[in-house]
Amino acid sequence: MTETVSGSAARRGRGSRKGLKVERIFTTPGVHPYDTVRWERRDVVMTNWRDGSVNFEQHGVEFPDFWSVNAVNIVTSKYFRGALGTPQREHSLKQLIDRVVKVYVDTGLAEGYFASEEDAEIFDHELKYALVHQMFSFNSPVWFNVGTKSPQQVSACFILSVDDSMESILDWYKEEGIIFKGGSGAGVNLSRIRSSRELLSSGGTASGPVSFMRGADASAGTIKSGGATRRAAKMVVLDVDHPDIVEFIETKAREEHKIRALRDAGFDMDLGGKDIVSVQYQNANNSVRVSDEFMRAVENDGEFGLRARLTGEVVETVKARDLFRQMAQAAWECADPGIQYDDTINDWHTNPESGRITASNPCSEYMSLDNSSCNLASINLLKFLRDDDTFDVDTFVKLTELIITAMDISITFADFPTEKIAKTTRDFRQLGIGYANLGALLMATGHAYDSEGGRSLAATITSLMTGTAYRRSAELAGIVGPYNGYARNAEAHKRVMRKHAAANDQIRTLDEMSRAVHAAATKQWQQCLKIGEKNGYRNAQASLLAPTGTIGLMMDCDTTGIEPDLALVKFKKLVGGGSMQIVNHTVPRALKKLGYQQEQIEAIVEYIAEHGHVVDAPGLRPEHYEVFDCAMGERAISPMGHVRMMAAVQPFLSGAISKTVNMPEHATVEDIEKVYFEGWKLGLKALAIYRDNCKVGQPLSAAKKADKSAEAQADKRPAEVRPVRKRLPKQRPATVTRFSVAGAEGYMTASTYPDDGLGEVFLKLGKQGSTLAGVMDAFSMAISISLQYGVPLETWVEKFTNMRFEPAGMTDDPDIRMATSVMDYIFRRLALDHLPYETRAELGIFTAEERAMQVNGEDPATLHADAELDRETLAQSAEISKPAEQPRPAAESRPQSSMEVIESRQGRTADAPLCLTCGTKMRPAGSCYVCEGCGSTSGCS
Question: Could you tell me which residue ranges the Ribonucleotide reductase class II vitamin B12-dependent N-terminal domain spans (predicted)?
Fold first, then answer.
């Protein structure tokens, strides 16, 4: 059984303290927030697309009509509680939110957080409104556990401790196992364990921390394979002055060499392969904890001492640059180890009198005392961008207050996996408010991610969030008291608050939006310092930036955490089971903000849909290219662009930032050294890199597997099958279209088969008997014969749209205002008339009405849903018989996720793993990966 600790807390003597007065933000007295939303029923059927098996199925679930298919699928399959097929199974988002919010409100009332029951009711309604409208989300453990019969665990992030004794090491194994079993992750610093160069009391030589890492890694792998289908998320840290640091640095790089050798020998070394289990140390992220002393020695090309754990004496002196190079070399080979900057971390530590910060959670954003935990919540920033492109500061502040209040209440009722973690967390009440959709917000407002303006806006928003959070924490301290460890650490805590406020004063604003946010942030920090001086603070920590993987999908965010957009074209599931590739909705909004007219926006969006990038897009000024730079693709953001963004927001976070700096395959060891060194110079707390294709242990893409299979079966191919021409009947339906492109007029006759499908096209352009007319007649016959032999129309559309030659320009067709040539117009018109919406969406061809809906953030697929339903009803009522469905191939060539869309555009395989639950290629989310298909993550929730 899992060890748990009771979440009930003794009431404090509050004397004459009064509870919070809660103001309404979104709701109206007498109107329940659910009644302001249009609800609809949907069926959730989730399959593993590679083999067609059904992973999850629940019919008739109830959600708001504006929630995407992805969000509905993920919440239904991951967060609804109760056995499937029983009355106890949750079937509505209302039930889920009611279950969670009720516990928060009841606890808040019982513990004196609210001035009256009316304030508690307002708190209840405001939380429900914000959650239903995807304005923020708690971390996954809240949705899993709160309000159920399970232990009320609310934290996703844990930090453990290990001392230099076998009892402590075995406790570490046990505590990690309990946390992994619950679906969370933990980090630990092993530097207290004596090195392999030191003696035991019995006279023998110590094993050293790396040997004990082997046992912990095996344990994590076993729990992973025996429980949920996700990797056990863990972080292992070792101080740079530990005598075994070189062995630690090289641990995973050596295993990568082993993977390559075994792969070349024919063993199955793909992720999830049967032979990969023989490789060690793969279940943890490794990080070296470096000091300022060491980094200065690197800077000055000096020497550095490695010290015994028991005596502190120097056992070896090394060249600092050589050791630094070994770190970068290992990271170049396998992405590990990352780096954590110890003195920077502890300089921003609010509780130094209670112990140093020695480690982090697996994704490196939570950094606090040993044996502690943190519950997280993230705000959807794009929800605060008004239609007039201003940031809704007041609403953002009020929602931040609401969230911090709820998060603090959760510590009061929460359960924890061990007594040590329970005590530390209740004594220091660490919180982790953060945000998602920063990349989408920057693009939508015309800010390049890697620009002074983008960094300034990000810094001001982060400062406003943390300033508001700590101001509310100080107000809560005046109502229910400061955290237990505050009195001992009061001066240090207030010193860190002043550091945050001083950093806020140093922000350089460059536009009206960032100036407005900065003015509000300055006000919040002034109030924070004033109220905190009087009351103290309720929470030792308040903010960090988490990966927001699963909850980012729940909130329908385009970008996760602090990340930029992954790519301009992404994969979207549709109601009814279809899917399409779309240009991100933030692109047209950004173009409008940059001053482009509607016709220009449509042309640029069509170009992006075709090419996946903006280079040479018609009418787009080159100075605006940077606004559309993404994490991957034609114009990928440089590694230092990511580092500079992290540095811009780090001074305004209690914790750190979950983010991996992606580097191109051709990056050098020196490039990695530069990134690690600049991270220290710029004041980051932690940094990790990933060089493309540095790891072998990734799954083969479906295309690669198909290639190998084809090679293996080359001598077993069946006899050649020739296509058969399907001629049109003598009488067939046809349409005639008169068109004009830049003043050049023409006619197009398109004939179809009686049972649907284009089979013939005739074009008239130019005078009868002219060379042009003859060429068009021949072209028409070639197209018609190819269609009758089964060449799909979409193939012709792909080839001839965007073809450029004169005449080109304006047309008289309201759906196609601009054409780059007559061929471009003809095949766009044919696509609009004869291809289904999903296919056209993948090709980036839309009617005027559909494009207008996209600009307004609506889903054009809804235009076609009713027509499709009518067709299905007609087919069922007529009892139309159909031939038996052919077996579905094990793998389809069409992309099934945004990562596969990117792969298809770039022509190469991305380094993301396949989801072990549904087979979809995952995408990066901070330093983890998240599956768009089912919401599974490769790290902490």
Answer: 44-134
The residue ranking higher by pLDDT, 800 or 535, is 535
Decide if 363 is catalytic: yes
User: At CB < 8 A and 24+ separation, what contacts does 864-867 make?
Assistant: 864/836, 864/837, 865/575, 865/576
The DSSP 8-state label assigned to residue 666 in this structure reads: T
Give the pair of three-digit tokens for residue 823. 């061929």
- The yes-or-no answer on residue 563 being catalytic is no
Structural domain of 777: 734-859
| Same-domain check for residues 527 and 405 | yes
Residue 579 has a pLDDT of 63
Exactly one of 145, 285, 286, 363 is catalytic; name it: 363
pLDDT confidence of residue 5 = 40
Q: Say which of 285, 361, 371, 535 is annotated catalytic.
A: 361
Mark whether 333 is an active-site residue: no
Query: Domain check: are 114 and 242 in the same one?
Result: no
pLDDT in tens, 104-153: 999 999 999 999 999 999 999 999 999 999 999 999 999 999 999 999 99
Total domains in the chain come to 4
Query: Catalytic one among 365, 673, 760, 900?
Result: 365
pLDDT of 365-395, one tens digit each? 999 999 999 999 999 999 999 999 999 999 9
**pLDDT range class, residue 282, cuts 50, 70, 90:** confident
684: in domain: no
Q: Concatenated DSSP letters for 404-466?
A: HHHHHHHHHH--BSSHHHHHHHHHH--EEEEEE-HHHHHHHTT--SSSHHHHHHHHHHHHHHH
In a domain, 714, yes or no: no
Average pLDDT of the chain to the nearest whole number: 86
Q: What gap in Å lies between CA 368 and CA 620, rounded to an integer?
A: 47
The length of the chain is: 941
